[in-house]
Amino acid sequence: MSGDVSDAAAALAAAQAPETDLKQRLVALVAGASTLFGSPNLADMLPAVVVLARTLIPADGYAVWRHDGDSDAGQIGASHGVSERFRQRIVDIHGGGGLAPGALTDPLIAERVEKEPILEARLDAYREEGIESMLAVPLKIGGRATGTLVFYYRSRHAFTEIEVHTARALGAMSAAAISAADLYHEQRRMREQIERASKQTLLLAQASAALASSLDYEATLRTVANLAVPQLADWCAVDVVDEQGVTRRLAVAHVDPSKVELALTYHDRYPENPDAPGPITTVIKSGTPVMVPEVTDSMIVEAARSEDHLVALRRLAVRSYICVPMIVHARTIGAITFVNAESGRYYTPAEFQLAQDLAYRSALAVENARAYRQANVANRIKDEFLATLSHELRTPLNAVLGWTRMLRSGTITGAKMLRAFEIIERNAVAQLDLVEDLLDLSRIVRGKFRLDLQPVRLSGALDAAVEAVQPAATAKGIGVEVRAGVESDMVLGDSARLQQAIWNLLSNAIKFTPRGGRVMVSVERRDAEVEVAVSDTGEGIDPTVLPFVFDRFRQGDSGTTRAHTGLGLGLAIVRHIVELHGGRVDVRSLGKGQGSTFRILLPMAVADRRAETVAALEAAGASLGAPALDGVRALVVDDDRDARELVSELLRGRGVQVTTAESGAECLERLDRELPDIIISDIAMSGIDGYELMARVRERQPERGGRIPAVAVTAYARHEDTERSLTAGFQAHLSKPVHINDLLTTIASLTLRTVT
After folding, report:
1. What is the pLDDT of residue 48?
2. Topology of the domain comprising 16-186
3. How high is the pLDDT of residue 612?
């Protein structure tokens, strides 16, 4: 009887053992929960999952896979008991995948791994590692897979129901812990993103307020650089292109003010090389923003010009940088550079966009400030001109009216009458000259200043101009020396207008040369151009005034104490006349009291085609008809198809043989194949603009097209745009919409030059 009781007790204990085992494991699982949920850091949590798995379910190896969303990609987050080679092989088999989340909806129980089709691709790795059995539990919560928990066995293992239930419970708890960690990191990321966006918005608001607070753009840009540090950068530098096209560093800011001097010293010691432009020059030239998220040492080595330069670059410790252009109205007026160094931060696309926004607002502020400054200058010049005009008209009028009234009253008789008539005539002629200058100015402003183009010898125009000013020179005891021994001085031009231009320069020289001085005038040939130079020993020109002597209404002395009369229009008219002839005019002076030299350079006429083209002009009915240009070969360059086709069709209708190029690069390629008689190019083009194109053309040898005449046809119509075109190498500058007769006449004049 006692034996039966013992057997019954043993049977009952055996029946309760699995339940007891399960309870013990669940208690251990609950006890380990605090470890899993104790840290939101996955680097701590995933190893804790492996430790808890080892406590609950004995196995030879363990691995926790982390999956990337719903894809197969993933990595082993933590493991134990498996080799590094096995880990790497499993990772490599499916491009980093473990068991895809979608592949397991329930635990995978593999007592013999070779019998499971889903594991077929991994069998070689399992055999090498000696794995016979495995249990894989999906880590899922709310239907979303976050990973896989795997138990490996190197001998065949029969899985009990308790092991499977325990593994499932551990998987559910691990999935919950991972999900909580993911949620924590997502919330943290969102908080950081919101905080970053808030700081960026504040930065833009502060920068906008600073830019709008003053019309002193230099001071406000320095403020912007300081605002960018340290929110957006460790270093911030602002480079601006001034009105003369020179790039200068306006501001440098750093989180450590003591290091600003380091940046300034670096910039002075290693300025950007025009032959090998750096990032700032490249950005300004191209107008394209640049971001380098991570600056590597190899990049630094490649950028270094010398060992000293390499040491200086490494000392700056640049980690990441952004350089964005300041662009307004399709013009790049500078660049802002943002650099991360000591902070170790790396730039992101969001910060790249912020930098561009900041640069755009800065460009608008600079443009508005410059426009305001230019408007003030224009208003001041206009007021000074009107005051001068009133004075210059009233002064001779006062003499005319005064002497006329005395003659009428009979108070002047005899010899004094001749003196009165002489004074009246002289002042009337002075008024006539003023009126003629004003009429010429009006024609220039309205685009009605016309030329009667004919073959002209400049020496002849020079002789006529000298003859006209000789009495004034003799009256002041000024000697006029003429050198005009050039025979090949033929140009296509308007004889009267060229004489007017030379006369203006001579009159100007005599006016500003003291009694007993000298004026020298010469005609010389300069390659394919004819030069007329007028030099004097007079007052000279102040260096601050020199850049503006050809501007309308500009005078070196416009105050009430000025020593010389005039409206300040003569030199502006000279420039316009010369430019209409496809030439250029410049001035040189060493300063006050050291005289000055004015030069007119005009293209020579082509002897073998002059008669043909002049005949075409006459057949068209005078100076501004529409000349036929049969046989002239023109290359039209414009990246706008409609504009390119319009000019091409207009020229073909006049007999011009037209080829086209839609970019500066294509133009240069065509020049390598065939040289045209003339180039007609737009200025604003992507890639290579008109200025750069013409600079490259002028660098060529003559036999490769280096001296081909060129016309700029562009929507840039300002005076400084014309100057820049001529400086770049164009012979003429026509503003869109261009009148066909103006274009044809310009082509006719420019295709009459040669190199003999």
Report:
1. 86
2. Beta-Lactamase (3.30.450)
3. 45
**For position 153, what pLDDT does the model report?**
95
Q: What is the pLDDT of residue 274?
A: 62
How is the chain split into domains, by residue range? 16-186, 206-371, 374-444, 449-603, 609-750
**What residue type is 648 in one-letter code?**
S
pLDDT value of position 710: 93
What is residue 273's DSSP assignment?
Answer: B
**Cis amide bond preceding 737, omega within 30:** yes
Return the pLDDT at 156: 94
Helix%, strand%, coil% for the chain, nearest 5: 50, 20, 30
CATH second-level architecture of 374-444? Answer: Orthogonal Bundle (1.10)
Does pTM top 0.70 for this prediction? Answer: no
- C-alpha to C-alpha distance for 681 and 691, rounded to whole angstroms: 10
Backbone angles phi, psi at 233, to 5 degrees: -160, 160
Token reading at 318: 């640049």
Q: 206-371: same fold as 16-186?
A: yes
pLDDT in the model for residue 322: 92
Spatial distance between the Cα atoms of 263 and 434, rounded to a whole number of angstroms = 56
pLDDT, residue 320, reads 92
Q: Are 553 and 384 in contact (CB under 8 A)?
A: yes
Residue 355: Cβ within 10 Å count: 23
Gap between the Cα atoms of 235 and 341, Å rounded: 8
Which residue matches tokens 């004003």? 438
CATH of domain 609-750: 3.40.50.2300
pLDDT under 50 in the chain at which residues?
A: 1-2, 5, 8-9, 11-13, 15-16, 96-98, 101, 556-567, 607-626, 753-756
* Beta-ladder partners of 714: 735
- Options 3.40.190.170, 3.40.50.1370, 3.30.470.20, 3.30.450.40; CATH for 206-371 is 3.30.450.40
For the four alpha carbons of 522, 525, 529 and 530, in that order, the dihedral sign comes to: positive
